[in-house]
């Protein structure tokens, strides 16, 4: 039987990844001490590894495909196929930013002010390439953790650090002077695996359903009944992926309407639909929108 070797990120992306795969139709169970999770698909063999290392294992063929952050693909300069961007604003899958930060009272206000200075970061290779592209000479040192403290303690003049909102950096008395990159999870594939027809089809199946599951996070379905004389008034209010589905009810001058809308608009939309004449409104969650 053909097998696809799939990498699942261990660490900060793990919980969100397992949840996303389950919504897409794959249940992955991770044992406490196992690096080889089980999955309800005989054609897939899972392995756990850190997101920082994932692209290297995909590039060298240890894995056929895997999910990791865009930041670590760029950091490792990995030659892989980016099959799908998996972007969503939900807290567990929110895009992150890598930023350049200095002490709040630092005279450094721009990248040029860092000429000859020392920068601490976990993203060493990317940072070196970035400053080289700007023509600014800096010393970049790897930070094993607590990167925010490096500036406060005088071990570095600036840091390149990942953040979502900047709150933690500000709490440490730092200020952001430049956003360097926005990162989000990506499904990647090994170059040779992508050329294999069976593996490519399996990876594309993963991409299709994972992206559909992401779409389903922020969409909901709406059903309602509407009298014939109010039909056009209600339809005008409905945002939709396409046109809503409209079906006549049996032996009545009423219609059933079904549509898909963004979850953010439902709170304000439902009262408007009721005022326009809709009745029996039902809202239901969606697992996938493809």
Describe this structure in words.
Helix content is 32%, strand content 32%. The chain has helices spanning 14-24, 51-59, 70-76, 124-133, 148-152, 167-171, 191-195, 197-217, 231-237, 263-276; strands spanning 4-10, 28-29, 38-39, 44-50, 65-69, 81-85, 96-103, 118-121, 139-142, 158-163, 174-183, 185-189, 219-227, 245-248, 254-262, 279-285. The chain has a 5-stranded mixed sheet, sandwiched between helices. Strands 9-8-10-7-11 form a 5-stranded mixed sheet. Strands 14-15-13-16 form a 4-stranded antiparallel sheet. The mean pLDDT is 92.
Based on secondary structure, the structural category is: alpha/beta
- Tally of DSSP β-strands: 16
Order of helices and strands: EHEEEHEHEEEHEHEHEEHHEHEEHE
- Helix content percent band: 25-40%
What would you report as the Rg, rounded to the nearest angstrom? 24 Å
Query: What about the largest sheet?
Result: 5 strands, mixed
Strand order in space, largest sheet: 4-1-5-12-6
Question: What percent of residues are in strands?
Answer: 25-35%
| C-alpha end-to-end distance | 29 Å
Pick out the low-confidence regions: none
Average pLDDT rating: 92
Number of helices: 10
Q: Give the overall silhouette.
A: globular
């Amino acid at each position: 039987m053909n097998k696809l070797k799939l990498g699942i990120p261990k660490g900060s992306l793990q919980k969100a990844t397992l949840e996303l795969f389950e919504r897409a139709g794959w249940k992955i169970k991770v044992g406490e001490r196992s690096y080889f999770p089980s999955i309800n698909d005989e054609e897939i063999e899972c392995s756990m590894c850190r997101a920082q290392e994932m692209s290297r294992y995909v590039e060298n063929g240890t894995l056929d495909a895997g999910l990791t952050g865009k930041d670590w693909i760029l950091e490792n300069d990995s030659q892989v196929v980016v099959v799908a961007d998996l972007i969503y604003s939900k807290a567990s899958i929110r895009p992150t930013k890598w930023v350049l930060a200095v002490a709040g009272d630092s005279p450094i206000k721009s990248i040029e002010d860092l000429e000859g200075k020392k920068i601490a970061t976990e993203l060493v290779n990317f940072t070196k390439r970035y400053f080289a592209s700007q023509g600014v000479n800096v010393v970049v040192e790897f930070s094993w953790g607590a990167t925010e403290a490096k500036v406060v303690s005088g071990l570095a003049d600036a840091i390149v650090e990942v953040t979502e909102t900047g709150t933690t950096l500000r709490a440490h008395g730092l200020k952001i002077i430049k956003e360097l990159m926005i990162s989000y999870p990506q499904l990647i594939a090994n170059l040779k695996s992508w050329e294999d027809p069976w593996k490519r089809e399996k990876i594309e199946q993963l991409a299709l359903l994972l992206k559909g599951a992401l779409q389903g996070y922020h969409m909901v379905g709406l059903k309602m009944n509407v009298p014939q004389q109010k039909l056009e008034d209600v339809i005008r209010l409905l945002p939709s992926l396409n046109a809503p589905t409209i079906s006549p009810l049996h032996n009545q001058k009423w219609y059933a309407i079904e549509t898909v809308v963004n979850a953010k608009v439902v709170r304000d939309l439902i009262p408007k639909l009721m005022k326009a004449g809709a009745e029996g409104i039902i809202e239901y969650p969606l697992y996938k929108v493809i």
